[in-house]
Automatic annotation (TrEMBL):
Binding note for cofactor: Binds 2 [4Fe-4S] clusters. One cluster is coordinated with 3 cysteines and an exchangeable S-adenosyl-L-methionine.
Entries under PANTHER family matching the protein: CDK5 REGULATORY SUBUNIT-ASSOCIATED PROTEIN 1, MITOCHONDRIAL TRNA METHYLTHIOTRANSFERASE CDK5RAP1
Listed name of the protein: tRNA-2-methylthio-N(6)-dimethylallyladenosine synthase
Source organism of this protein record: Sulfitobacter pontiacus
GO cellular component, one term: cytosol
Domain TRAM: 378-439
Cofactor: [4Fe-4S] cluster
Binding site for [4Fe-4S] cluster 1: 14, 49, 83
Amino acid sequence: MTAPKKLFIKTYGCQMNVYDSERMAESLGDNYVETKTAADADMILLNTCHIREKAAEKVYSELGRLKPLKELNPDLKIGVAGCVAQAEGAEIMRRQPAVDLVVGPQSYHRLPAMEARVRSGKTALDTDFPEEDKFEKLKGRGKATRAPSAFLTVQEGCDKFCAFCVVPYTRGAEVSRPATRVLTEARELVERGVREVTLLGQNVNAYHGVGEEGADYTLARLIKELAKIDGLERIRYTTSHPNDMDDALIAAHGEIDKLMPYLHLPVQSGSDRILKRMNRSHTAESYLRLIERIRAARPDIVMSGDFIVGFPEETDADFEATMELVREVKYGYAYSFKYSTRPGTPAAERPQVEPAIADERLQRLQGLITGQQREIQNSMVGRDVSVLVEKAGREAGQMVGKSEYLHSVHIDEAQAEIGDVVRVRIVDAKTNSLTARQI
């Protein structure tokens, strides 16, 4: 029997890319096993992200570093997948002839046929937006044991067209997977040992999937059905848009025990002028009132957000409005970035903020956010929380997992195994984690 070839996948960017990489590996699983090093691989796939400036150039640099491997092993096949593949297409092969395969994020269900083509000595390019449902064409998730937490894509694409974002061009229009298929995949994951799923989408709370007998499933209804699955203990979702946070989803945070008290809800700026220039279609005030309603439904919820600093034409007053919003919300987590141009987006053509000014603003914002995060972590000391155990810790007898609030928790002298959900008492707060003892 011929030994399977080795597949190395390097994943860039978002959680959806992590999910996509898993599915690509599964689609090639009849002929390949995954390896952790590129040097001994028979096929290398770069699953790329186009969200940051110069993303394509970073991919070309990586391809340049991989080229010597192909010179040593002419049978090695190199592929580029994901959003840079979608944006650059055939240009990737033109600039780097070592590449054999280019596949966009909507076409990776065709990987087995593309792999067969490159093994015959040809190249393969597919950056279409096919009409068929790629998820329906993919193999089932299988029965092999896996980590207790998993991502599950339920929605892709975006119709919002924020002025800074390339997602509508690389992922396409908003599409929701049928609810029955999402539920089937969730059950398959639970059979493989998964206890927690994070539902993924570019605008996950815009989800509207077809259910049984043509019924319309919103995200709230989908979560209610997922909560009925025996063995599935925790449900999360990301990333959400404020405009799609409907009454039923807000209520779900107070009604469904398996829906964790953590919500990532990007606002991007606290300035209404900048929000309008971003084409965000909400105001700072409407966002703050929305946070109030969510906290009324689930008072202990931990909020997370995204911020872009130095957006074109941002003034000192605009930035101070962002700082004021952050002070009012008090985030448990937040991700902040200095604006970088995305080619082809409206904001790329506008007057840019001086880099030094943007740097200074980013440092101030991150200082405020870090203080809030530490304050919330410190407030956890003495509290009892539930932890999903994910791995062994560095110390003898120590286990590590995530609390319902997504905090990383180290359990000393743990009497638990990976996949267990245990009650613990927090005894110490460190910079990026909590320490606990089991109760």
